[in-house]
Amino acid sequence: MAESADRERTAAYDALLERYERYSNLRHVERLLEWDQQVTMPAGGAPARADQFGAVSAAGNDVLAAAETGDLIERIEEAEANGEATLDEDQRAVVREIRREYDRTATVPNDLASDLSAYRTESRGIWEAAKAADDYDAFAPRLDGLVELERERSAAIDPDRDPYEVQYEDSQHYLALDRVEDIFDELREHLVPLIERIRTDGRELPEIPAGTYDEATQDDLCREVLTTLGFDWDRGRLDTAPHPFHASTQFDARVTTRYDESNPLAGLTAAIHEFGHASYQLGLPQDAYGTPLGESRSGIHESQSRFWENHVGRTKPFWELFLPTVTEHFPSLSELTADEAYAAVNRIHPENLIRVEADELTYHMHIILRCEIDSALVRGELDVEDVPEVWNDKMEEYLGVRPETDAEGCLQDIHWSSWLGSFHGYTVGSVLAAQVDAAMRDDLDVDGLIREGEFAPLHDWLGEHVHRHGRRYRTDELIEVATGEPLTAEYFLDYVDEKFTDLYEL
Amino acid sequence: MAESADRERTAAYDALLERYERYSNLRHVERLLEWDQQVTMPAGGAPARADQFGAVSAAGNDVLAAAETGDLIERIEEAEANGEATLDEDQRAVVREIRREYDRTATVPNDLASDLSAYRTESRGIWEAAKAADDYDAFAPRLDGLVELERERSAAIDPDRDPYEVQYEDSQHYLALDRVEDIFDELREHLVPLIERIRTDGRELPEIPAGTYDEATQDDLCREVLTTLGFDWDRGRLDTAPHPFHASTQFDARVTTRYDESNPLAGLTAAIHEFGHASYQLGLPQDAYGTPLGESRSGIHESQSRFWENHVGRTKPFWELFLPTVTEHFPSLSELTADEAYAAVNRIHPENLIRVEADELTYHMHIILRCEIDSALVRGELDVEDVPEVWNDKMEEYLGVRPETDAEGCLQDIHWSSWLGSFHGYTVGSVLAAQVDAAMRDDLDVDGLIREGEFAPLHDWLGEHVHRHGRRYRTDELIEVATGEPLTAEYFLDYVDEKFTDLYEL
User: What percentage of chain B reaches a pLDDT higher than 90?
Assistant: First the structure.
């Protein structure tokens, strides 16, 4: 009896895994189509590409959201609840993760999903025109409509919960929104006065000398630095794209960056950030490819990119190590000292209005502002028509600067043509990166290793503590497993305090 | 009554088209994954890529072979048969084409399809090892197994017909096998003595001077030639791959070639060939993308590549036009005359044993030999163990040369690890290219246009007569529509007679 129940459970589990594997592969193909579109596709390919995306995405949805998937999950869960069959820890994690994705997909009616998709496509052009014309009123009705559709979607997934929380869980899994909102409050209370002190009392930091830094040389430099950092070129590539991103699995990790000929280091920094994402993917177990144990945790991803970007790439030892490489590529920089390079890549510019151009510190105020406005919109606490004023007031309060146009204010990002509530990850990523960095420093002499160009121990540590687990643990559990404690703002705030107090001689 | 039947028919037709559109897009994505694997994928990506292919392919099959597809087709055909609703010509063509693809896919049991797929994957490694060891016996059982599985598959599709004919229709649609076999007989009778005369009585043709021709310069040359030939770079790319191929839609046409530093023109010729394929795809109607009317006819494709490769790229006017471009890139060739270049690219080498290195004339004997052996195997007229001897006898009979090893003989091609019966298209393509060329010359001064570098009229003619029709016509019908008569060997035989009699001064 028990044996046959176990066979039955095993068959159901295998069938579920096979469905998930197809779904997961189709998702990776979607990501690859995106990479191809940004990197290699001729411009004329766009119309067909949209249809190709649609077909792959629909095929993935069909496999995941099919009634058969739900039946399999239920059979497994029932057998488990009745004690008829027992899953091991990893198998339980697999079922938990597939259940989560199934619930979010299967509960949204097809009509609503395709309405949303069509609405987003249409809104994009309207946003572009509104931004170009600095005409918020032309876009406001689209934002209003999006808020309505997103509320409807949240209600379809779970009518009993805060619709914003439901939406937030699209991108953040297993990391309680109220905890993240508390952390954001702490950050705001701490960072606003710190930024204010830098603005008023900080010394003037050096800048990278003005000049023209040609793209091909920047690309060479980038490749040399990524090689030293340990990028596995047999499983990876580096290309340029209009907006840096990555498209990666544990077998094939593609980093993109963009080069600005007036700034020799921006492209490098972006590449190191994406290299962090790629390294996480490359550290996932190969034998679990196509299962949740071979997938990354979305809430962890940005901590890996920020770790490499900030806790490696913006440190003094990094510049001690790499400045000779940089000046070899750009001899015009040979007067620069490592201290100056370090200071230059860490300059704060609160006067900047644009999120994607923000520095390591002020960036988080751009994020917090967006999360506050997004949540107020979805929760019905803010009218769409009041957004520009609230935006500008917050910019003034947080960064001491007020946009003169909506194009530089609330219309700057494309995101409201497509979604709300997806920005937390950037700031959570930085907070967690600092926490990971602190835990790693308990075990390793990180500064010494960077100075020596020894990056394998850093990869090993991250692989052991974070990457190899895939989605074995919930996000909040994985944070504890990796760092020994729950998510906390403490390490990030210590890190920015120490770094910027020192740099700006406050 | 009639009105509601028509509405019903329209709804069924639209639903069928929507299914086909998904299927068609997934097929294009598969092709793009192939391109990516050959051109951009890091080597380490292979294991995941196999799974991604599998997922996209299964998703396409699921959409096409679903019972719902069959029901829709039947409802439409019944309404049509009852006179309840009337399709226009184009719609009838759409239903005919979807029916053909549906019948071939839905009739093959899933188990057989996956057995075949697994068998092929396994055979590939065994073929590689057998070829490397020149050990036919190690591979023979795999070929035997493939013949069995293919016969089984043919029987599943249509148990009442010649299994080889059923298989042939995988790649050749609506072009009767017996007609093609007659044409092959004509070719054999004509080409074998012509090749023999060239071997014994032909003068010695000049060769391209030996030297090292660097890859980057060959690539520049290729791009310049393709630009003059009218390649639309906004909808296309050129890259290198281990084996030249193309992956194209009417929006995005990707040509690949490979460069050999000892031969400055082989890469160019391959690129022109693939450019011909790409031009066909680019000439398909954009508004029919995702429907059979926006897809190419497989039996026509090779005529378009061969037209550009041979009837443009291997003509005297072509070399009159492009020789200055070639010598500008490779000054060491500046002694060469256009007549010499023309002769050099048209050299026949019957002593060559390898199909993929064969010239324009002897190539067809390699194809005919394969088709004869494949058909005899599938029809049960030849035992697998006798293949090497039959192969070598035919090589001797057709080309006057006998392979000393099976590695250079019947083990040379990878195809028997995967399929049988798919080679006709190459020779049909050349035959049809000559027929198309002759029809075009009734309307245009082709030589004069080539000499002037005016290629737009050639594209326009092909677009008008061939490309714009997609799959509107059956292959045999399209040949008549495009050239005014059924497929015939006449023009091809006249063309090779005239060209090689003149070149070799026979």
Answer: 92
